[in-house]
Design brief:
The chain is α/β, with parallel strands linked by helices. It has a single domain (2-256), classed as Ribonuclease Z/Hydroxyacylglutathione hydrolase-like (Metallo-beta-lactamase, Chain A), CATH 3.60.15. It contains six helices and 14 strands. The strands form two sheets. A seven-stranded mixed sheet has the order 6-5-4-3-2-1-14. Strands 7-8-9-10-11-12-13 form a seven-stranded mixed sheet, covered by helices on one side. The chain starts with a strand and ends with a strand. The mean pLDDT is 95.
């Protein structure tokens, strides 16, 4: 399996002849509004363009996974850093089969997407010759989580390929800890940007939570959601410094946009 990191949470999982696109935010730099206006400089998102190798990779896409996309079916509340207008058009025009949470499926079907798998928490279903299981992802602590599009983490297993846990946009919760300790995925993707809105506490893990996550993970951790959005203050450098301080740097891959790694 080769994991191609594109930008933010967007990546392509290459498994043989399958190319699975995850959380497609594929529009040009600056095509989305700022996600915070007071706490951070109100820059338009994404902050960076897609890497040069994104276009040929996207042409190979056969399937798509969306961890979360909307709240209450209201388009204005779409989490466009995981499915933007360009991503929607790409999936619709190519009739790419999409797997996502059942509660998001109706809204996405209205956008013309081909929803092939409607996933429920805890249920194992066939997926691309293997299996997939959705687990809850909690998008923040405290009251703010009730207003967020709380989505899913996905456990993906294929024959003769390392198992993968895409933990999604989540803080560190007992559910996340249980998946790491009981399911013991070989590779784990962690949303590491510490996204924070203009109100309330962070809606992604703090650096301290990330250290707990990495210590708990049984295998390699891949850190994404970095340096692409104006409300994500944790940088690659800050994360690496924290990992070095805690003796964990060898357990985490912090990819640059466009970087790929193959796992046997």
């Amino acid at each position: 399996m080769t994991i191609h990191h594109l930008r933010n949470a967007t990546c392509v999982l290459e498994c043989g002849d399958r190319h699975i696109l995850v959380d497609p935010m594929i529009g040009a730099r600056g095509t989305l509004p700022p996600f915070a206006h007071i706490r951070f400089k109100a820059l338009r998102n994404p902050l960076v363009d897609l890497p040069d190798n994104a276009a040929p990779l996207l042409q190979k896409v056969t399937h798509c996974l969306i961890t979360h996309s909307q709240k209450w079916g209201i388009r204005a509340l779409r989490h466009s850093d995981h499915l933007d207008d360009a991503g929607t058009a790409f999936l619709r025009e190519r009739r790419i089969p999409v797997a996502t949470l059942a509660r998001d499926a109706a809204a996405l079907k209205k956008e013309g997407l081909h929803i092939e798998k409607e996933l429920e928490y805890g249920k194992v279903v066939p997926f691309c010759g293997g299996i997939i299981q959705a687990e809850p992802a909690q998008h923040g602590h405290g009251w703010i989580r009730h207003f967020m599009a709380n989505g899913a983490g996905y456990l993906v297993r294929f024959p003769d390929i390392p198992s993968l846990y895409l933990s999604g946009d989540t803080v560190f919760t007992p559910v996340v800890e249980q998946v790491l300790t009981e399911q013991r995925p070989d590779i784990v993707v962690m949303a590491a940007g510490t996204a924070t809105l203009d109100v309330s506490t962070p809606i992604l893990m703090t650096v301290d939570e990330m250290m707990r996550f990495v210590r708990t993970a049984p295998g390699l951790v891949i850190a994404n959601h970095l340096e692409a959005l104006n409300h994500c203050p944790t940088t690659r450098r800050r994360l690496k410094d924290a990992l070095e301080k805690n003796g964990l740097v060898d357990r985490v891959w912090i990819p640059e946009d466009g970087e790929a790694r193959t796992f046997n």
